[in-house]
Design goal:
The complex is a heterodimer of chains A (514) and B (297). With 514 residues, chain A is α+β, with helices and mostly antiparallel strands. Chain A contains 21 helices and 14 strands. In chain A, strand 5 and strand 6 form a beta hairpin. In chain A, helix 4 packs across helix 5, helix 13 runs parallel beside helix 19 and helix 15 crosses helix 16. The longest helix of chain A is centred in the middle third of the chain and has 21 residues. Chain B contains 14 helices and 2 strands. With 297 residues, chain B is mainly alpha-helical. Classes of the chains: A alpha+beta (514), B mainly alpha (297). Chains A and B meet through helix 5 and helix 9 of A and helix 11, helix 13 and helix 14 of B.
Chain lengths: 514, 297
């Protein structure tokens, strides 16, 4: 039988390919972004402190000491962060087969007693906060590197326990060597009995239990969370991170999310989400169709026109999902895309998806609406306060608030072509950590929007990496529920012709317009 | 004799990590005195290392002559972190380095020991660091602590493995100068030996002061300082009752919940350690050899 040709396994959760480097744009575009709201609380995994000689010392400071962001401490890294930022989660992992874990005890020794938790929280924190110091990134990436693959026998045991049959029987063909590492599992190729090439993500045995138990030690996690911003609610931040990590442990949820996105984008001209194979997916094994395509690193060598189209599709995917599905896939890193040319992109990995209630999303939409479209500063401020980004009654003029927030909407303020650049990114990051700005003291990131910071730190970083040019405002208007503008690009035309009508029928009820 | 104060403990993790890395060879010519199939290697991978190390120092300090030697000769007060790092480097070398390197390190220690001699002011007894009786005590306290802590906070060792470990470690005792045939070679012999030494043990002011310092080292990096409280509790609770009473320490009983918390703290400490340069690679070198040794031929 022919071996399936694989470019990238579609469920390869944590497999990190590529890696952002260089300048990136961190723009809070559009409405979305929440995160922007505050120069606050982020999460830094470790802090850097001066050594005895006054020389900066990579001090472990260990702990997730981090999650402490930092209005104060973060300012120190802000200038270099965009350049240096490369989340631990993007680290390319070499599969060390010579170190393969043979038993559940080996797994426990490697990922038990807090290590798995630190890895997961660290991964999330790296997207939530780019005040991460180099030492933090090093510790996190080391932790990720420290996890070897399972031996073929151990992976087969998990498959058998989950699917009731050994992999050689559950599948027509099974490749015992994993092709990629995932954060708490690994990916194998296989062919189903009905002939489909699939990617099978297999979870490390016992890991869900140990991570769930370790997440229960709130006192220790809290001790490691250092929050210096006066208004950040540590417990809320921790609660959000814990809940998201717990969700990632159950692959059935990931499968549900992937089905949810796949159903909505079925028939879309440029967006593809691989299908889940239901009967071969359980709590610890998830099987999805195998996708093929160019990785992010290859895209970088394609002509700029191709890169612009790919960026447009990613942008549409993120904001259509947010506004129409009220869902955000919180893992927008380069390893999770496959590119096919002509703006066609396959989206992978739905392990970390945040669903929003209408009342959580409404203020975000309103913020974009009042700052970009209606230009009503007081209404903008009201929504900022309502969402919890700004303490109500703060002794600030509305103009101060607008000045502070304006930079986050720069890419969608005017309808004109705009290129995402690293300079812009730096400006946003500086604002984000600007402790001298009087607004910072009253700003905070509410729990519900913690994950949205990945739009700033992940998505816009990616677009900056592509130096993508588009009329982002015009695209946003197509998507903004308070505008629903006409198609502004060929991809927009194609969406309208073949996909929008059916998508409208599948989407949750639209947001109310106040 | 106990007038000087101690230096700070800043850099404890960094320097211990560097010391450990230095002891794990990249391309060893042989498997050293233990090898990848040994219980010793398995024991060294245990998370409880920091607690075992602390407990073992607390035990060792209870021998008045051993303590006097440290108190009167060691640079322990001026450079406590450096001393601890040197111990880490020595133990890693003995455990993982090839035989020639381990013998060289041991020879160096034996040479230094010949200069360590004097009179203990408390008991009035003369001492020499090369005295086999003292060397044996230091050795036995270390071995017993590793087993006790692993039993409490790590994966418990089977009785067979405990015996094997004690037997394997005989060579470590002999390397520093314990005459052949003197070191215990089974868990039962180890227990019998410890019971026989009990009457000589006591908590001298030097021991009390040094251990008070170790349990609450000033200048510890902030984040480590926080988790050190749990490490300290772990070491104290793991002491035999009689030893804890000699120090006059009190430790609330170890509940299952508290035990899990200590394990979690040890996991965090281990993750931090792993972030230090070279530690992951050193561990991978060891793990790869252990896995290869475990694979059926």
């Amino acid at each position: 039988m022919k071996r399936p040709r694989v470019a990238r396994a579609s469920t390869a959760g944590g497999a990190r390919a590529g890696g952002l480097s260089g300048a990136r744009v961190t723009a809070l575009a559009g409405a979305a972004t929440a995160g922007a709201a505050a120069g606050v609380a982020a999460v830094a995994l470790l802090r850097r402190r001066a050594g005895p000689l006054g020389q900066p010392n990579l001090r472990v400071s260990r702990g997730l000491a981090a999650l402490g962001l930092v209005a104060r401490g973060g300012a120190r890294y802000a200038s270099s962060a965009p350049r240096l930022f490369a989340a631990a989660g993007e680290h390319r992992q070499q599969l060390r087969h010579d170190l393969a874990l043979q038993t559940a005890e080996d797994v426990a020794a490697t990922l038990g007693t807090m290590k798995g938790v630190l890895m997961k929280l660290g991964q999330m924190a790296s997207y939530v906060d780019n005040g991460l110091s180099p030492s933090v990134r090093r510790t996190l990436s080391r932790l990720q590197d420290s996890v070897p693959p399972m031996s073929p026998e151990l992976a087969a045991q998990v498959v058998e326990a989950e699917l009731g049959r050994p992999p050689e029987r559950a599948f027509a063909r099974w490749d015992p060597e994993p092709i990629a590492a995932a954060s708490i599992g690994q990916v194998h190729r296989a062919i189903t009995h009905d002939g489909r090439a699939v990617a099978v993500k297999v979870q490390y045995p016992g890991i869900a239990e140990t991570i769930a138990a370790d997440l229960g030690n709130v006192a220790l996690l809290r001790r490691m969370l250092r929050v210096t911003a006066p208004s950040q609610d540590v417990d809320a931040l921790l609660a959000e991170l814990r809940e998201r990590v717990l969700e990632e442990l159950d692959y059935r949820r990931e499968a549900d999310n992937q089905r949810f996105f796949a159903a909505y984008y079925a028939g879309h001209p440029t967006i593809t989400v691989p299908a889940i194979v239901d009967e071969l997916s359980t709590r610890r094994v998830v099987t999805s169709e195998l996708a093929d395509g160019a990785r992010f690193a290859e895209l970088a060598s394609w002509p700029q026109a191709e890169r612009d189209l790919a960026a447009e599709t990613i942008y549409r995917f993120v904001f259509r999902s947010l506004y129409e599905l009220r869902a955000f896939n919180g893992d927008p890193h380069p390893g999770n895309y496959l590119f096919h040319g002509g703006g066609k992109v396959t989206f992978l990995d739905f392990g970390l998806v945040r669903h929003f209630t209408p009342s959580e999303l409404q203020p975000l939409a309103n913020m974009a609406r009042y700052v970009c479209v209606e230009r009503d500063p007081e209404a903008f401020r009201r929504n900022l306060e309502q969402a919890g980004f700004l303490r109500p009654g703060a002794p600030l003029s509305t103009q101060q608030v607008i000045d502070y927030m304006a930079v986050f909407y720069d890419t969608v303020r005017e309808s004109r072509p705009l290129t995402m650049t690293g300079d812009y990114s730096s400006a946003v990051v500086r604002r984000f950590f600007d402790v001298r700005n009087p607004v910072t003291a009253y700003a905070r990131i509410p729990r519900s929007y913690v994950i949205l910071q990945r739009i700033n730190l992940g998505l816009f970083g990616l677009l900056g990496e592509l130096t993508a040019t588009a009329n982002w405002r015009a695209i946003a208007e197509e998507i903004w529920p308070f505008v629903l503008g006409p198609p502004s690009t060929p991809i927009g035309e194609a969406e309208t012709a073949s996909w929008v009508p059916q998508a409208r029928r599948k989407a949750p009820p639209p947001l109310a317009l106040d | 004799m106990t007038a000087e104060s101690y230096a700070t403990a800043a850099g404890l993790i960094e320097r211990s990590a560097a010391a450990y890395v230095s002891g794990v060879p990249e391309r060893p010519a042989d498997d050293g005195f233990f090898g990848p199939a040994s219980v010793t290697w398995k024991m060294s991978a245990d998370l409880g290392g920091p607690v075992a190390g602390l407990r073992s120092l607390m035990m060792q300090a209870l021998h008045p002559l051993a303590m006097a030697g440290v108190d009167q000769h060691s640079t322990w007060r001026q450079d406590p972190v450096g001393r601890l790092a040197a111990i880490s480097a020595y133990l890693a070398t003995i455990s993982f380095a090839e035989r020639a390197a381990a013998e060289q390190a041991a020879a160096r220690v034996r040479r230094i020991h010949t200069h360590v001699r004097g009179v203990d002011e408390i008991t009035g007894r003369p001492y020499e660091a090369s005295d086999p009786a003292l060397l044996l005590w230091i050795h036995a306290a270390l071995v017993e602590s590793a087993l006790a802590v692993r039993g409490l906070f790590g994966t418990p060792v089977s009785p067979q493995d405990a015996d094997r470990y004690v037997a394997e470690m005989v060579v470590a005792a002999e390397l520093v100068g314990v005459p052949a045939g003197l070191a215990p070679s089974s868990a039962a012999e180890l227990d019998a030996y410890l019971a026989s030494v009990r009457p000589e043990l006591r908590c001298t002011p030097a021991a009390r002061e040094s251990m008070a310092y170790l349990l609450d080292p000033p200048g510890l990096d902030e984040d480590v300082a926080e988790i050190w409280q749990d490490i300290r509790y772990g070491a104290v609770v793991a002491l035999p009752d009689w030893a804890r009473e000699m120090y006059g320490y009190d430790a609330p009983p170890l509940t299952p919940g508290r035990r899990e918390e200590i394990r979690q703290v040890l996991g965090v400490l281990d993750a931090l350690y792993l972030g230090e340069p070279g530690v992951l690679e050193a561990r991978q070198r060891i793990a790869a050899r252990m896995r290869a040794a475990a694979r059926p031929a």
